[in-house]
Each structure stands twice: as C-alpha cells, then as structure tokens.
C-alpha cells in the first residue's frame, strides 16, 4: 500500500526523454475563440486531426492550442460526448511551479529579496533551513531543484490517498523542517522536489503576510489578465473537468493547502496558458517582463548537461535556438507547455486523463519532431515470477548525474530516472522489458541472477547503465 500511495503522490516533472533533451530536426468537435494578447484565432484542422487520432489510442478528452506569431490556433476533442473548448479548466499540476517561480522573480525585480538570500529569513519560529554543511539554503536553490530537499516530505500521511496533498499544511511542513537531516550540500545536485516548490510558495506567502493564492492572484494573475483563465478552486468561472486514470476511470480531484500549493495547485485553460506563454515571450505589454526574463535565464544545472534549468523552466536546444518546457500531471490530468521565443511560437496540450501529452505539444511546436509510436508501447507482455524479477532491482548509472532506479514489487518492475517520475516496465522476455508510457526497451546483461549492467534502447539510441548496488 505504501508504494502505491507514494506513486500517486508524485506530481510529475517535465516528461522529457530519459536521456538529455536535444530536439532536432469517435467524432470530435473543434472549438475556436480569440485570446487576449493574440492577434486572432482560427480552428486548426491539423490540430484537430492530431487530437482525434490520439484519442483512438488513449485518453478521454484533449484541448490544445498553438500561438504562432500572434495567430492563435485552437482545437479540442472528446472520445465521446461533448468536447471541451479553449476555456475548459484542467488541473495543470507542476506547470504551477513556473507561476511560483515568476512570483519569486517578481519579488527580486521589486528589490524585496535576492535569489542568493537565505529562505530561512522568511520562516517563523526561528526555523532554520540549512544543508548538510550548515549553509543556509537560498531562494535560488528551491527554484532550481538544487536545495537537497527530497521529492516529497516523508511525513506526508494523507487521510485520503486519492487526494494526497489535501491535508498537508504548514504545521506538517514546519514539523518536517524541524526534524530534517539534510544529506547533501545545497547546489551540489539536481533533485526534482515537489516539497521544495511547496516550501517556496509557502515561504513567499509567509513573507508577504498573506496566503499563496491571494499573493499569486494579486501579483501574477491579475497583472497578466489571467484571472478567470487560470486560477484556484473557488475562483473559476466554470467547474474543472472530471479527471481520469490512464485506463479512463474517474479519479478524485487534487486539492492543496499553502504548504504544497506552489508545486501544483493551479487549474488552467488552453486560452489562459497561451496568454501566459505570450506574456513570457513579450507578446504584449505587462509589468512582469523583467521577472519572466529572469525565470528564463539559465540558473543552474539539471541532471542532463545540455538541459540547464531556469527558475522552474527546463531549457533545451532546438536548431540553434533555446526552447523552454514544463509539464504537469496529477492523478487525473496531464499537461505540456512549450515556448519558442525566437519564433514567437508556443504550444499547449491539456488532457483530463493521466496520459502523456508532451510529444503532442512538442510536435505542435515543430512538426518535424515525431509523435509517440504506440506500436512500441502496445507489445504483448509475459508474466514472470517474483523470483525472476527481484534480481533486476537496483540502481544503475549512465554517469554520475544520470541514474536509473529499478524497483521490484512482487512480480512487477518499476523504473525511475533521475529527476523523473516512476513508470512500470513489462517483460518481453525474462531479461528484456518495455515501457507503455513511452517507447523504450531495457535489456539486462546475462541470462539469470543479478545483472552487472543494462542497456536502454530509445529513439535509435543505446545507452549503457552500470549497476551500482
């Protein structure tokens, strides 16, 4: 039960490939309407056909949009029933982190704090936030996932595992901070942390003497004209869509207190997120231009050398340009947002099911980039015994920064790459497995026993990971 709960707790990071990201070269109804900040809008037959085709493979409903030089293209589709539209609300999960980072950057631009300042100065009760060397953790460390804080607080014990963040408040977070024993020095490694971004939002709110939602609404949503397009429960003009699991079963919505809201509380629409993207790229005049510029500058290293991290945003090279990405996921929703400022293009795809949409959004950003190959993820699998699976579990390293953790759960095997979410592997043979969340295969050395290494096959690449334990 504990492992199942832990998997559900994890807000997903940007769904990039397992190796460093270098991008190179039933009937549904489309919806359209003009967006604030855009030069116009149009239905897109291309977007529509992509969404309709994807829903034959997975998902319940999708909404997508592309902003290209001021022109807005919109589409939406549903597997059955009424399709959503550009104003339908989805849980956007970890895309919230980019808003929390913008809130931090705005405080820096206003001269209220510096990225190098210690976070503990904003905490009450004399709470300290120090690394393994006793050095104060900075705002920059939280906003770049380089604080050393774990992905989740170990004292999370949700009363309802289906809504895991609903009862994790400031008292619980403060208790964790009082008892936390850090294991590494700040800024020494990248470790994606929902806890860290929850703390970032909470600390900014404490410093301002208000709640996180009120602060973000006043300083970000209202100045960008996003209120009513992106927001929180209780402050939206429409209900949020029903979310679904990957196998299309309805699941509970997720709710957040201030201690974790900065990691994933926002709900958003396609129209709202494209306006947000337009603001980030300087498409219209607003007071947060400098703050966005600070967010999009490289601020630290991720676990992939060619993918530095800004304040929350991940950066990637594309044909000599830099593009920016953040994805989101909760138990019942998935989302992907991409920016290409040099081409003034942005794309967003929202799903009300826990299915991957990163490839769709990236393909809309550049049509040369391929969509997910479902044939590779729909292979037949075989059943293995727990005794056959157990020796495969362990930690495997591509290099010092990028590792793959394999976990056995009875006869099932799960994988988690550094900074990414856990996913299940399925056996083709006793020593070769494939994933259903993304096209990849893993082959273990040897015919039996504990393997010395594994080879990951993905996108024509062969990456060798050596076992560490």
Largest sheet: 8 strands, antiparallel, barrel
The main sheet orders its strands as 13-14-15-16-17-18-19-20
Low confidence ranges: 1-39
> In percent, how helical is the residue content?
10-25%
Distance between the termini: 25 Å
Structure description:
This protein folds into 2 domains: 308 residues, Beta-lactamase, CATH 3.40.710.10; 91 residues, Lipocalin, CATH 2.40.128.50. The protein contains 13 helices and 20 strands. Strand 6 and strand 7 form a beta hairpin. The longest helix is centred in the middle third of the chain and has 15 residues. The N terminus is likely disordered.
Summary of the model, kept short:
The chain is α+β, with helices and mostly antiparallel strands and 469 residues long. The protein folds into 2 domains: 2-25 and 88-371, 3-Layer(aba) Sandwich (Beta-lactamase), CATH 3.40.710; 377-467, Lipocalin.
Write the layout of secondary structure elements.
Layout: H1 2-9, E1 40-43, H2 45-55, E2 61-68, E3 71-78, E4 90-91, H3 96-109, H4 139-143, H5 170-179, H6 194-208, H7 212-221, E5 230-231, E6 243-244, E7 250-251, H8 258-264, E8 267-268, H9 270-280, H10 289-296, E9 314-318, E10 321-329, E11 334-340, E12 345-351, H11 358-365, H12 374-377, H13 386-389, E13 394-397, E14 403-409, E15 412-417, E16 423-429, E17 432-435, E18 441-444, E19 453-458, E20 461-467
């Amino acid at each position: 039960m504990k492992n199942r709960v832990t998997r559900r707790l994890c807000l997903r990071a940007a769904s990039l490939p397992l190796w460093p990201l270098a991008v190179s070269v039933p009937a549904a109804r489309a919806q359209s309407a003009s967006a604030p900040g855009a030069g116009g809008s149009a239905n897109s037959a291309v977007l529509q056909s992509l969404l309709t085709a994807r829903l034959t493979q997975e998902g319940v409903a999708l909404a997508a949009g592309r902003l290209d030089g001021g022109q807005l293209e919109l589409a939406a589709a549903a597997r059955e029933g009424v399709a959503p539209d550009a104003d339908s609300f989805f849980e956007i999960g970890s895309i919230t982190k980019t808003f929390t980072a913008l809130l931090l950057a705005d405080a820096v631009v206003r001269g209220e704090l510096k990225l190098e300042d210690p976070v503990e100065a904003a905490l009450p009760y004399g709470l300290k936030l120090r690394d393994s060397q006793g050095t104060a953790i900075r705002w920059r460390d939280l906003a770049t996932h380089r604080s050393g804080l774990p992905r989740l607080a170990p004292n999370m014990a949700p009363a309802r595992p289906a809504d895991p963040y609903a009862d994790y408040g400031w008292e619980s977070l403060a208790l964790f901070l009082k008892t936390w024993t850090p294991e590494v020095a700040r800024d020494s490694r990248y470790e994606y942390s929902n806890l860290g971004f929850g703390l970032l939002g909470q600390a900014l709110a404490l410093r301002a003497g208000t709640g996180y939602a009120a602060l973000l609404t006043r300083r970000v949503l209202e100045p960008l004209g996003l209120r009513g397009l992106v927001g929180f429960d209780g402050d939206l003009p429409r209900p949020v869509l029903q979310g679904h699991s990957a196998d299309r079963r309805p699941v509970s919505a997720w709710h957040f207190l201030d201690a974790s809201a900065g990691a994933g509380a926002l709900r958003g629409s396609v129209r709202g997120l494209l306006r947000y993207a337009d603001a980030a790229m300087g498409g219209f005049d607003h007071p947060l231009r400098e703050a966005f510029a600070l967010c999009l500058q490289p601020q630290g290293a991720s676990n992939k050398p060619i993918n530095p991290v800004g304040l929350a945003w991940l950066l990637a090279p594309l044909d000599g340009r830099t593009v920016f990405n953040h994805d989101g996921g909760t138990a019942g929703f998935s989302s992907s947002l991409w920016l290409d400022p040099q081409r003034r293009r942005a794309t967003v795809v929202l799903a009300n099911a826990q299915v991957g949409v990163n490839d769709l959004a990236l393909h809309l950003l550049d049509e040369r980039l391929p969509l997910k190959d479902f044939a590779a993820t729909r292979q037949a699998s075989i059943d293995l015994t727990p005794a056959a699976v157990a020796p495969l579990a362990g930690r495997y390293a591509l290099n010092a920064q990028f590792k793959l953790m394999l976990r056995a759960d009875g006869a099932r095997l799960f994988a988690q790459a550094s900074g990414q979410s856990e996913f299940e592997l399925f056996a083709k043979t006793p020593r070769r497995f494939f994933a259903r969340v993304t096209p990849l295969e893993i082959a273990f050395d040897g015919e039996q026993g504990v393997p010395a290494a594994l080879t990951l096959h993905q996108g024509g690449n062969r990456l060798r990971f050596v076992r560490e334990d």
